[in-house]
Task: structure prediction
Amino acid sequence: MPNKPQFNYFLSNIKNEVQKDSKIWKSSIPMSRKQPKETSGIFFCYGDYFTAARSFLSANNCKTIITTVSQITNKNIKLSDIKSVNIFQEKHGEFYHPARIEAVVGKKKFPFVLNVAVSEIGRSCIEREYELLQRLNSKFQNSYIPDVYGKDEICLVNNLNLSMFLGQWFEGYNEFHLSHEPADSSKKMLVWDPVTGSFFLSKNQTRKLYRQAAMILTLYYDIETFNQIFPWHHAAGDFVIQIEDDEIDLKLITVRQYAPIFDNNDRLEREDRDLKYIIEGMLVFFLNMSIRMRLDRLDGVGDVVWSDDCAVEETLKGFYQALALKPQIPLIPAPQADFFLDYLSALPESQLYDLSFSIADAYNPVASEVPVIKDQLKSHVACLYNSIKEHPPC
Result:
């Protein structure tokens, strides 16, 4: 029987190792990034978390890790090749408690993400998201969302059930949020880099960020079925960023749902969807994206904040860029990107506002972002209208 790998446990980084006899091991885990104490009635401690993660990763002699690393390296990896497995508890989200996994094979480290859910709603999200990531990676040739490698449920000795799946970890990518610049109290995009330290993006980098986020969401939008990745939130850290030589690259690390934003869109059969209906659906997608692109929480956990106007023009550019890359839809006159932008530029500002207001009015009325959206909506639509008229995408 080959030697099994050593499992090691950490909070966030290698300096914060957690031993089984430590106080942390028995401490309760917060159920979200905003809750310092457990309030769900479930007692879930770090020891439970690390024990469940180890059970998942070591199942069937680490079969999931062995299979995945073998595929990545195109080599036949054996159990004895895995020297150790390091489990880093990264953060506590609304539904998941993700861990960064390091499988040490020989002299090389292979990073993965292990999404862990303990609440009933979180476990339901695990099942749905795993299937969606598999489906979207099969349907689209884009590489902006993580690959997934296996999922399972773990029942601990205290009858606590956890759901989890192993996925691709985007090495070198970091979370970002709007934050106050100390020098002038302005709001700027702050990248949370645990290696070099947090830093603010330049104006040009921020523009590229919004453009690329809009491009990614539009690439995954299905023009004919209206299926889209939604909901997504900057506040939840759904996008992560990597910067090299002033150039940025974004990834979308989660897909909670993939469906039409409004249920009635799905009631029409495909053959009944004429050009007018498809274009109107695209308009709703674009306007909703333009609104949500501007929302964040200050430093990820503070009050809801609204981004600068530069997000508007860049969202338009990213949307146009993705439309030009998508396969041509037979119902839409070619080129479809130019056709839609011509349609968009012909709409009066009042019509853009009315539709944007209807979209915002359909949000959950108790959601914290709704008052911010409605307070900013008139100026947002004016900015969008001007961007369409004065700065045609290129």
Notes: The chain has a mean pLDDT of 91. The first helix runs from residue 46 to 73. The CA atoms of residues 234 and 296 lie 5 Å apart. The chain has two domains: 6-168, 176-390.
